[in-house]
Amino acid sequence: MSIDEHERFQRMIDETLAGVLAAQSEHALRAHLSTCAGCKGYLRASKRVIAGLGGFSFEVTPTLNARVLAAVVAQAEPARQTLARHSGARRQRNRQWRNWGALALAFALSYLGSELVYQVATRLAIPLQIDTARVQAGVLVFWLLPSICAAVCLLAAPGEKRGIA
Question: Fewer Cβ in 10 A, N or C end of the chain?
Answer without folding.
Answer: C
